[in-house]
Amino acid sequence: MASVCDPKYAPAGDVSGALMVIDSRLKAIYDGGREIDPEQRQLTDQFAASLGPRGAHDLLDGACTIIYMFMTWLRRAHEDHDKDVIEYVVPTLVASMRMMPKSIRPEAIPTMAGLVVAAGMGLSPSLWRQQYGKWTKEEMNPLEATAFLLAEHINRLTDDREFATRLISNALSKAEGA
Questions:
Q1: What are the residue ranges spanned by the domains of the chain?
Q2: What is the distance between the alpha carbons of residues 82 and 49, in angstroms, rounded to a whole number?
Q3: 11-62, pLDDT tens digit by residue?
Q4: What angle do CA 31, 66, 151 make, to 5 degrees?
Q5: Contact 129, 61 (CB under 8 A)
Q6: In whole angstroms, how far apart are CA 113 and each of 44, 53, 63, 132?
Q7: How far apart are CA 147 and CA 129, in angstroms?
Q8: pLDDT in tens, 88-102
């Protein structure tokens, strides 16, 4: 029986926009952990302000799609070594989130861990989350951090600071060409 959380039923959302946000955060961290340069912050703020309610929802779906894609890649990479992605990724992710109390309130961590577990099991994170009601404002930073932390995890595994961004960009290019 097919799950109502099957990714084929999920909207992809604004994957390009979500990737832009994640990539800018990665570059800021890799650039010595300095604050995002003022011009980049202004562009990101202008982008966010231009979204409107529908665009913001699409951005959320895009972030969930990216989380799903990252976890699919991680699951396959871990399976190649006879390891369980949930066992190896989720504890590290939760530990990282717990070290970010200004950005991620403790009560948001179980939801973000649930998103990652759902994605690791081949379910749509956005459809899984939808079962529990609408997104809250308090979940926005944790969602962004979850996608960022997964990207950074992938980049560390591959020893390539741009691998995660390239992974999604390549998938977008293939989808547009299909």
A1: 10-177
A2: 45
A3: 999 999 999 989 988 988 888 755 556 676 676 667 666 777 777 889 999 9
A4: 30
A5: no
A6: 26, 26, 14, 14
A7: 15
A8: 999 999 999 999 998
- Measure the CA–CA gap between 22 and 163, rounded to whole angstroms: 13
- Residue 123 CA, distance from chain mean position: 14
CA 158 to chain centre: 18
**Helices 163-177 + 38-79 axis angle, to 10:** 80
CA end-to-end span of the chain, whole Å?
29
Burial 99-138 (b: 16+ CB within 10 A, else e): eeeeebeeebbebbbbbbbbbbeebbbbbbbbeeeebeee
- Tens of pLDDT, residue by residue over 137-156, are 889 889 999 999 999 999 99
**In the structure encoding, which two tokens stand for residue 53, read together?**
């309610």
SS3 assignment, position 19: helix
Rounded percentage of the chain residues whose pLDDT exceeds 90: 67
User: Up-side HSE of residue 26: CA atoms within 13 Å toward CB?
Assistant: 24
DSSP 8-state symbol, 134: S
pTM (two decimals): 0.89
